[in-house]
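DM between two lab members

TW: hey, do you still have the Riboflavin synthase subunit beta entry open?
JB: yeah, one sec
JB: this one, 103 aa:
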Amino acid sequence: MIGRFFHTPAAKRFNITPRFYDPEKEEREERERRIKEELGIFDEKKDDGKPYKPNVKGQFRKTQGGYSKTTEKARRASNTRLIILVMILVLIFYLFFYSDFLG
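TW: and the structure you got?
JB:
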């Protein structure tokens, strides 16, 4: 029991081996790339002279058409609840400190 109380679990290991690794294909592609570089042939599809810059930011919202209506409704409802809560707290504060209502 005491030994289990101070037990710390071992770190989990992540070991993955590639499923479809073809060393011959990689050698062939590397050889083709070197030959094309030596001959000065550049693949137009792969390299347009610009470094690759991913454009991921905001892509999900663009495909979904911006914010959804349910998100806007939830935001509006949350703001309304917050305003009502603040008004109730101000009313309680006023009645407690500035009114002779409670005695």
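TW: got it. The chain has a mean pLDDT of 78. DSSP finds four helices and no strands in the chain.
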